[in-house]
Write a structure and sequence with these properties.
The chain is built from six helices and 14 strands. It is an alpha+beta fold and about 260 residues long. Strands 3-2-5-6-9 form a five-stranded antiparallel beta sheet, with no helix packed on it. The protein is elongated. It starts with a helix and ends with a helix.
Length: about 260
């Protein structure tokens, strides 16, 4: 039976919007194999996002809308191992991502303006030596009056980042209680976090809210690489930061 003309005038715009996406937004539709639940970071290097966003996967699937005007903008979707999917997209598009987390870099991406080759993550940290650390309740609870604070970010799921504990032990062996230390976990699985080996007699404080890169302090500092170290002087200003303890932190500790 033919569809009445009046009904077609209603259905056609709806069909058009469902195919083309919605004005004022960009939709990301992801279906990934060999992953169940996870939060993937979404970044933009040229203004598409004002902050880091999150693609929340459930059973390997996610559909997420980003408020967006104009374009195209460059977007990066980051896996937990820091491998990235890079593409350029504009308002009204629906970007479909199909792939396997065991074969990163081979994803099928459609619906965008262009696909960019995989690249090393562009560091977007707002950290700068001499800049005051942001206000944070966890940091405040870890500080000691008149002493520097060494913060080490790590996660059990990130291979190699548990070296942070060894680095904190090294700092304590050399400087003892003259510095305060905080081991800040970006784990997202409680069982995995509790099962991870940690020094039961560690002289440092630990924190984990199971929010990964969405943890408040990680978001404030735009932490996207693990392990990562920040040395804060007694006045609350950044004295050193970086992913290499021996290069970025150790020389600064000797100046404290």
């Amino acid at each position: 039976m033919p569809i009445p003309k009046a009904l077609m005038t209603v259905l056609l715009p709806l069909l058009f919007l469902s195919c083309e996406g919605r004005r004022g937004s960009l939709r990301i539709d992801a279906r990934l194999k060999n992953i169940d639940q996870a939060d993937l970071l979404i970044l933009s290097t040229d203004g598409g996002l004002s902050d880091i966003d999150t693609l929340h996967l459930v059973k390997g699937r996610a559909q997420h809308d980003i408020a967006l005007q104009g374009g195209p903008y460059t977007f990066i979707i980051l896996y937990p191992n820091m491998a990235g999917i890079r593409f350029m997209a504009s308002e009204g598009q629906t970007v479909k991502v199909r792939g396997d987390v065991l074969q990163t870099g081979r994803e099928e991406i459609t619906g965008c303006d262009s696909i960019l080759p995989p690249d090393t993550l562009i560091q977007t940290l707002p950290l700068k030596v001499g800049r005051a650390m942001p206000k944070d309740s966890v940091l405040n609870a870890s500080r000691r009056a008149g002493k520097p604070l060494l913060v080490a970010f790590w996660a059990n799921w990130k291979s190699g980042s548990n070296i942070a504990q060894r680095n904190l032990r090294d700092a304590h062996t050399t400087y003892g209680d003259s510095i305060a230390m905080l081991l800040y976990s970006l784990d997202v699985d409680e069982k995995m976090y509790k099962a991870a080996w940690r020094d039961p007699q560690s002289p440092w404080k630990e924190h984990c809210d199971l929010r990964g890169f969405q943890s408040p302090l990680a978001r404030k500092l735009k932490i996207t690489k693990l392990p990562y170290f920040i040395l804060v002087n007694a006045q609350g200003r950044i004295q050193g930061h970086g992913s290499n303890y021996d290069r970025d932190i150790k020389p600064q500790l000797s100046k404290k």
